[in-house]
Amino acid sequence: MPNKPAAPITMDAVYAAPGYLFRRMQQIAVSIFMEECKAFDLTPVQYAALVAIHTHPGIDATRLSAVIAFDRSTLGSVIERLLAKDFIERKPAPEDKRIKLLYLTKSGAAILREIIPAVERAQARMLEPLNPADRKTLMGLLAQLVDLNNEASRVPLRAEDALEHLGKGG
Amino acid sequence: MPNKPAAPITMDAVYAAPGYLFRRMQQIAVSIFMEECKAFDLTPVQYAALVAIHTHPGIDATRLSAVIAFDRSTLGSVIERLLAKDFIERKPAPEDKRIKLLYLTKSGAAILREIIPAVERAQARMLEPLNPADRKTLMGLLAQLVDLNNEASRVPLRAEDALEHLGKGG
DNA sequence: TCTAAATTGACAGTATACTTACGATCTAGG
DNA sequence: CCTAGATCGTAAGTATACTGTCAATTTAGA
C-alpha cells in the first residue's frame, strides 16, 4: 500500500487531537476546582494529598506519591506547603531514620471535612454540560483508559501494593 | 428532604472523581508525547504554538494565546524558548509599536514537517488501549465537554474571532 | 485635542510536574 | 562484619499554568 499523503497542518487537527483535549479539559477542571474551593486555599493536588494522608495515617512521602500518582520531587514542595499551613505534621519513623511519617493535624482534618461539599460541587460542575448518560459513558471510558495506560505515565499509580510495608497488606 | 449523609472520605472517591481522571490522563498524554517526540526536543505546548504560527503567520503573542487557549504569561516563556531554538522569529509591527509579530524560521518549518509522524504516533498511542468504537465515543464526548465548558476556563479558546484584527475576518 | 480606558508585552510570584543528582541510611551478600 | 546496592528525602534545573502588576502605546470619547 502507498503511504498516506501528508495531511495539511491545521489548527483543526490540533483541536481534535486527544492530547490537546486532555490538556484543555485539565485546565478547565483545575479552574472550576479553584473557583469552588477558593475559600479554603487548597489546590486539587493538596486536596488529594490530604485525603491520602487521612486514609493512610503515618504514610511516608514516597508511598504517598505512589498512592496519588505524582512525582516524589513535586510532592516535596506540596508537603512543605501543607506543613506551612499547619494541615499536616511530620514525625521521624523510629525504625528507619530516612523516613518521615505524615499525619493530619486537627486543623487539617477539619478543613478536609469542610471542603468536601465544595469539592463535590466542583466535580459535578465539570460534567454538568453533558446529560447523565453521557457523563457515565465518558467517566467509564476515561477510567478504563487511565487504568490501561497506567504504566505509560512516569509515576504509575500503585494504590494497594505501595502500602505493603506499612503493615496494611501482604 | 433530609440531607444526604456525609460519604466516608476514601481514596476510591478520589480515583473516580472527574478532576482526578483528567489530571491523570493529562500526565499520561504528556508522557507519551515526550517519549515519541524526544528526538525533536519539542514539548506539546511548543508544538501547538508552532502549528498556530505556521497557520497564522504574523500573529502576535496575545492572539496566539487565544488561538491555542493558553495563558499570555505562560506564552512569553514558550516564545522565548522557541526563539532560543531558532524555530521562530519576532518582528515589530509597523503600525503598532506595542505588537511583535511571530513567524516560523526555515528551521521551524522544517522541524514541524519532520515531527508530524511522531506526533501522530503519540496521539494514537494515547487511545490505543480502547477499541476503535470506544475511542470515537470518548473523543466525541470530550470534545463536546471541552467546548461547552470553554468559558469556564481562565483562558477560553477563541479560534476565529481572535484573528479579526489580522485581516482574516470581520 | 486631550485625557481616560483599553491593549500589549514584560515581570514577579505561586504551584504543579518532571529530570537528574546527591548524601544519609538501610539491607543483603559474601 | 562490611561493603554493594537499594531506598529516602532533598535539591537544582526546566517547563507549563496561573495571578497579579507595570510601563509603553494605542484608541475612543468628551
TrEMBL record, chains A, B:
SUPFAM superfamilies: Winged helix' DNA-binding domain. Gene3D superfamilies: Winged helix-like DNA-binding domain superfamily/Winged helix DNA-binding domain. It comes from the Bacteria. InterPro entries: HTH_MarR-typ (IPR000835), MarR/SlyA-like (IPR039422), Tscrpt_reg_MarR-type_CS (IPR023187), WH-like_DNA-bd_sf (IPR036388), WH_DNA-bd_sf (IPR036390). Keywords: DNA-binding, Transcription, Transcription regulation. Pfam families: MarR. Residues 18-147 form the HTH marR-type domain. The keyword Manganese does not apply. This is MarR family transcriptional regulator.
